[in-house]
Design brief:
By secondary structure, this protein is of the alpha+beta class. The chain has 29 helices and 26 strands. It binds S-adenosylmethionine and zinc ion.
Length: 967
Amino acid sequence: MPTYPKRLIEVDLPIKRISAHARREKSIRHGHISTLHIWWARRPLAACRAVICAALWPDPVQDDCPPKFREDAEAIMAHFWNPIGRTDLDFHDPMALRKALLDFIADFSNWDNSTKKEYLETARALTQSAHVALGGAPGTRPLVVDPFAGGGSIPLEALRVGADAFASDLNPVAVLLNKVVLEYIPKYGQTLADEVRKWGEWIKIEAEKELGQFYPKDPDGATPIAYLWARTVTCEGPGCGAEVPLMRSMWLAKKSSRSFALRMIRDQEKKRVDFEIIQDVKPKDVGEGTVRRGSATCPVCGYATPVASTRKQLKARRGGAADARLLCVVTTRPGQQGRFYRLPTERDLDAVRNAAAELERRKAAHTGRLSLVPDEPTEQYHTFVNRGPIYGMVAWSDFFTSRQVLSMTTLVRLVQQVGDCLVVDCDSGLAGAVQTCLALIVDRQADATSSLCRWHLTGEKHTATFSRQALPMVWDFSEVNVLSESTGGFLGAVGWVSQVCEKNALNLASGHVACANASNHPLPDDSARVFFTDPPYYYSVQYADLSDFFYIWLRRMLSGTYPDIFKTKLTPKDDEIIVQSPGHEFASEGKNNAFYESRMKIAMAEGRRILEPSGIGIIVFAHTSTSGWEAMLQAMIDAGWIITASWPIDTEMANRVLAQNRSVLGSSVHLVCRPREDPSGEVRTDDVGYWSDVLSELPQRIHAWLPGLAAEGVVGADAIFSCLGPALEIYSRYSRVEKASGEVVALKEYLEEVWAAVSREALGMIFESGDGSGLEEDARLTAMWLWTLSAGADNGDSIDNNNENEADEDKSPKSTMKGFVLEYDAARKIAQGLGAHLENLTTLVEVKGDKARLLPVSERTAYLFGLGSHAAKKEHKKKKEQQATLYGGVVAKVEAETGPSSELSVPAPGSTVLDRLHQAMLLFSNGRSDALKRFIEEDISQDQGLWSLAQSLSALYPAGSEERRWV
Ligand SMILES: C[S@@+](CC[C@H](N)C(=O)[O-])C[C@H]1O[C@@H](n2cnc3c(N)ncnc32)[C@H](O)[C@@H]1O
Ligand SMILES: [Zn+2]
């Protein structure tokens, strides 16, 4: 095999620090490209920036590192670090130079440094030196290609660090975003920002003239900023027929310092409910909402109209936004802080009726090629992405009220008009750029202006349509005043977009943008230096379906400017590489796993084709199942790639751990690869490796990686994923691996060996003094299990898990699995590697579907204190009633059921060391100090193994857990 100088990313990467910056970046808003427009599953720029640098720059420690790069890097690093007083590094020493480069990468991934001149210049100088040293022609730049470019994070960072970028995506909306980020902002920078602001304000003024009457100010000068509505159904209770407003809650504002709520006034006779607003209320004074999971409880007669009827009724009224009930108007008052809440008046209702009438007039007068109102159908969407059709919202226009459509169509027309003015006014390139940005502003407005928006109770602000990657039904919605200068208004959107232009005006070179299918890439063979991409992940996001929400508006504004990419009525779907039927691997309809995997393999083969033989590939994969992982790895290998490293960065573990109760081993892993090619670019097909060689190399490789990672604080699942790459290199550098019998070894079989090797190595680290082999299988498994779930220090950011707005009727309650949950397949692999058998460990581990749960110690009480299986069953039956007891006094409970306490307070010592330790922990947890003392003195004091296991587990049980305290 030909070899090429290793890049930094193939030897080391400061993933802890980069991840911290990536996480922090999520709270950064002003000027961040994510605020230009929604795109789903954007990668943090911090991670992209670091990865690109480390992929472009060679590792100075390697013997074959080009000497010129080493020389340049020495000078550049000295120039960068010395002025900041960094004297600990002797840049002549290649190891120190490597450290200097990695430290630079870590610091540069900080958002605050991303626009600083000294960082930008340093990065660009290193990129240029590496490029030429690795054979690039002077005066050219290395090309970074991303065929799944989405919102453009990867190519933007390529430009920032001094590379050239080629970004493509199948989706027209994504292509447009890339054009703004990679072509227009680099080219027009501050001018673009200024023009966008100027014309955005012009649109606001013009819109005000036309629309002001439909958002009237209050007679006392207050300005309505949002109108809170509820869809309604007719009560189907016997003889009732009252109108039931569908409300999730009666709250309007729920801050500790300020609170408002609605209170119902029932009129039994008229079968009608009215409202009053109450202020400074306590939770107990606020009534329940009327709708729960789609079933609507009548405030008049109490009858619950079932979800099927709710749906049927709303379906007949195309979602029921048009005749929803206005409940409350939120206003601001001149010179006064805060929001005010008032009941609606006739004026408000007149304005709504007038808007509807005006829209009808305009519809009748409209003569354009495309309908005025976006009447494109929505019935084709899967209900897990778009729930509108279930309720009769069968055209996109049904997702908006008449007043919303009136405002949106007015803005659309004004953007078209600006386009006409601009063509006369300035160069056509700039005109197109300005018009495109204005169209994105209108898109932002669409996001804030549908009937799927909510009022955020604690933030007292309007929440836009896309707070998640789906369009759920929202019963009670917030309609923003488009003209207001407060939350959700048009001027706000102008501000966001112009700030992005301003902040990113960095004198970057322009990138190249294309609308293309990744499975059929437009670039020629061997033209890229780096292939770095973040492809879609199975069913997690249905980009094309979601993006239609914006496409319908964009097409009306921009099809003249971009006739090629706005050809079709809706976004193209056929070639999109996703899974449409989660859980149905062999679904007969729609795209299934097999479709996804086969297309992804073609796209990966395309990536290898366009990459030069000495180039480097990085693919971000995030998938929660190990089988998904295996399929993707197999696709990479089949597509002719050698996997050389893998880095989990910003794995969102912190978030997901909270959201899903520690059930996730899925992370965003950057898989680093090289083409398995001859220098000519031909894929090598006849390198055969021997299984015995592969197997003997594996543990050495793991041993060389894992402790290094641990030293940097990378442990648990992150460490396991970091080991996969190097382990896979041993296997994937061959075209195939054969056993002595000639049988070909499947990747799946090899991966089992990898997990086993990692588990053994990790166990060796956990039990520093030995490898834990003296312990029984339950202790080995427990230790490794906890280690896998551990995140190391400083990884436990809390998140704002504000679920109060979850509106969908079908939301199942949050999973409340207690204990330590791993995906079953991962647990099985770990167990196997440790020679433990899950099926023998049923008193320690519970397997349920695709999850395996290491039982909390408290749940082992029955087993450890001698309750037989009959009693255990009884326990299970009475689970609910027992919960309280379990927390209150486990031992007491068991005693009550099985006999006098004196016998049980010192249990018969468990049969394994782990059991005995857990017994002691439970005695402690129940305050049975005498019993515990006796147990220690008589049974376990001499048990050295137990004390050392306790020592190890005390570090592994998660901080804050009961177990940690007890042990
Ligand atoms: C995970 S997203 C990329 C996100 C991007 N890295 C960012 O930070 O914004 C995956 C992208 O793949 C695109 N896509 C799906 N199938 C495609 C195909 N066949 N060809 C090109 N792009 C495709 C989707 O439109 C989506 O934008
Ligand atoms: Zn009723």
